[in-house]
Queue: 2 jobs
Job 1
Amino acid sequence: MSLLDRFRLTNKVALVTGGSRGIGLAIAQGFADAGADVVIAARDKDVLAKAEAQLKQAGTRVLALSCNASRESDLQALVDQTLATFGRLDILVNNAGGAYPNDMLKTSTEQFEKDFHFNVGAPFTLSRLCAPALKQHQGCIINITSAAARYSQKGFTSYGTAKAGLTHLTHLMAADLAPDIRVNGIAPGSIMTDALAQFIQGEAKEKMIALTPMKALGYPEDIAAAALYLASPASQWVTGKILEIDGGADVTTWPF
């Protein structure tokens, strides 16, 4: 086997939440290009259908399922349908997540806990539900956390706290599940997705670029490349680690 062959995912099955757009779709595309059959889950059925059609062009099997990641019943159905269709599961990517910038003094405890559940509780639940199937094939889990987990910045008490929780959950799950299941994470910095584009245009975008050592924003494909490494045999001796894909930014690049 050549070194490049260790990045192949032939005969593997991958499940990607939030897989219909942005980082999640780029990861699913990378997996499909590497030979994996892919399950993508998201809430918007129309966007899911477009993503499914795109992914099928890679020539592998694709299953697109509507799912609210905050509901355990939806997550259980997602696992059941994945196994019923493909008979196995090798890779789980907990990508669904997010929260808007917030004013701490105007954020209710209910909203704070809702954001924490979406970003930490849901990945924990889905990982637990997938673990028996992943264990059968020495599978892996990849959690998409964020550089916001380690930055001190205004306006991110909800999102930053939740992603910090997911980062440490990654470390702890890796300890619990080794050696049967590898668990790693990716902490993206400023990635130009539709979600970021809501806030970053014009002068704000230029300021964010200037604050980034690489003098450029990242793209979903940059995260997909890291995910392919962590999902493939190339990283068979890696667990409990967080890959920081952030253009070298050790402090916040948020321009406001």
Job 2
Amino acid sequence: MLAVLANRTYRHLFLAQVIALVGTGLLTVALGLLAYQLAGPSAGAVLGTALAIKMIAYVGVAPVAAAFAERWPRRTMLVALDLVRAGIALFLPFVSEVWQVYLLVFLLQAASAAFTPTFQATIPDILTAEEDYTRALSLSRLAYDLESLLSPVLAAALLSVISFHGLFAGTVIGFLGSAMLVLSVRLPSPKPAAPRGIYDRTTRGMRIYLATPRLRGLLAINLVAAAAGALVIVNTVVFVQNCFGLGARETALALACFGGGSMLSALALPRLLETLADRRVMLAGGGLLALGALAAGFVQTYALLLPVWVLIGVGYGATLTPSGRLLRRSAHAEDRPALFAAQFALSHACWLLTYPLVGWLGAVAGLELAAFSMALLSLLALAGAMRLWPREDPEAIEHVHAGPPSSHAAGAGERHTHAYIVDDFHPAWPDSGGWIGRPVTMSPQG
């Protein structure tokens, strides 16, 4: 897995991701503790609302940012957004009202909504071999798990000598370190896409995503992960401090158990994905998530909470790590930023639903009902994924174009086979007879 770090450009980007996520992990712990300080037992509702605002920023900003990203050098854009995020994080230690939390979270995450899809879409352009990219996805999942594992452990150590307000300084350092590492490398510039209107550029990734069956299944799997993941992220502080009467360090340890489970998945997946299909691995992970959410409803002690959080972490890693492989095989290089932005927006739309839902259910109806509700939602979404994502999902598909011949290699009525990707000449998925629509552009050009 570590062999891909021999690539200097990827190595610097991976280290940038690690450093930024350590800072983000400190932010996650600090926000939970800040919410508890401001709202007490209602901290779950406050944190759930703050995270919902974060999701609104993600869903609304990512597609628009992707539409304009192709006009700017990637390195310049990524460095500028890191500096913006660091500047906003400087204000977080001075928050004294709940509304201030909401405002700063929105501004910070709007910048992240532009940064993350651009960053993710750059990796397949650096690591073009499928095996290398799979290893990079697992390393990326490990980096994300630092937010739930190493960062909370670091937070627990820091909390023994400083107040939680000091954790926000780690966030600033993380974003500045990320900017310096991105600035130290040259990033590839994929061949520019054909000139398109603003509507086409803003919605193109979403239209490719929703027209591809495996990605519609991925959307349902995103909802499974969001349901169980929101239960952990929003209500861990309430479980630990309000129900069990424990403190900040125990809260950090519980979050670390969730991250540890996800890390176990990331370590195992490169080998598993050599023999098992993405669909089977991701659906199995979804089953673990539903089981973990159900088990959370029966947890009565801190000692039982920890293994349940590990189980949910294992399922979480198994469902999300292979998603980049699906996106890579479902778009041409010039469309990848738009498709990654669509995945970013749609997956976070799932979190937009589950964050406030689990937070308010926990505050109003109790943690048991919140856990059982997330388990039911996970099961329904998992059933939807199994239906939307066909068991047989070949990369190359035999198909026939309707309409007159065009610059595409095959003319009307000529049956042919190639790796099938939704694009201007393939605007829809073939029906059972292999026919697709007229080979015209996906939308009017501007």
